[in-house]
Amino acid sequence: MLANLYVDSSTDLMQYIAKVQKFPMLSQEEEVQLARNWHKHQDIASAHKLITSHLNLVVKIAMKFKNYGLLLMDLIMEGNMGLMHAVKKFNPDLGFRFSTYAVWWIKASIKDFVLKSWSFVKVGTTQAQKKLFFSLRKIKKRILQYTSRESLSNEEIKAIANELSVSENDVVQMSYRLSCKDKSLNESVRIGEGSRELQDMIPCNSVSQETTYQAREEKELKETILNNALANLNERARDIFISRYLSENPQTLEELSKKYCVSRERIRQLAEQAMSKVKQYIQSESLKYA
Question: Residue 284's pLDDT is what?
Fold first, then answer.
């Protein structure tokens, strides 16, 4: 069912559109029967026919989102995923046409794709912010089409904020975001007679990969040496050492004396002896890597 919905990147868009327009429309009775066959018997052929008969609907919906700078075929493919989800969720016994139900899933899938792909910076996840993203461009065009202005007035911003149930600052920020698309770090910047990529001109204050790698290697080496040192202790000495020096909540001499039925002074002596052995082992091993 999935395979026939994917289109190779080299496939011409017009050829794909012409192909999906050839699939016949279904009557409501046919939709109900196909949907029942899928839900009751997992009949792949019925699900496939239900999907292919609505591929043209996906194209029509995807066309409405073509002004967001994304490939139309990518939008169509995302819409197809929403269409497939609609087939899985559709209840044919409620009396609605499948297209009425599928439109919601198709739009939701395409909108999610646009929000994720349009900007590296998170646009917003609340319903109000999503509505603002998809409505502001249309509202601005309606307001400014008879003026020479390119920006909204304070009164217009306030009116839009009230209409969409968001703050005025949200309207201002989203308007700016829609007018300033993300730049690629691989974009070429002309410098004199030559050019460099934008990423080569941005200073990097983070720790270099070499330094990070060396720090990780050193940390792993220290952990290995410590584990080997502890392995050389007997079980009681190892437990006392870990309980006293390595635990997030170190145990007291009193607690350990009760655990091993010896005096607190004896626990102190055992802990010091264990510490001495661990230090000696670490020092001897560290010399090998000096």
Answer: 84
Q: 196 pairs with which residues across the strands? A: 189
Look up residue 35 and give its two tokens: 């949907």
Structure tokens at 237: 């000495």
| Each residue's pLDDT tens digit, 101-142 | 999 999 999 988 887 776 544 455 567 767 777 777 778 777
What pLDDT is recorded for position 139?
81
Predicted confidence at residue 145, as pLDDT, reads 76
The structure tokens listed for 169 are 């600052």
Give the C-alpha distances (Å, rounded to integers) separating 122 from 29, 171, 176: 44, 15, 14
- Rounded distance between C-alpha atoms, residue 37 and residue 52, angstroms: 16
- Contact between 86 and 101 (Cβ < 8 Å): yes
pTM metric for this prediction:
0.49
In eight-state DSSP terms, residue 5 is G
Question: Which residue numbers in the chain have pLDDT < 50?
Answer: 1-4, 6-10, 120-122, 182
Helix (H) or strand (E) holding 42: none
Whole-angstrom distance, CA of residue 123 vs CA of residue 33: 41
The b/e string for 21-39 (b: 16+ C-beta within 10 A; e otherwise) is eeeeebeeebbbebbebbb
**CA distances in angstroms from 58 to 48, 107, 109, listed in the order given:** 15, 9, 11
Q: Helix 154-164 and helix 127-144: axis angle, to 10°? A: 140
Task: Please give the Cα distance from 252 to 265 (Å, whole number).
Answer: 12
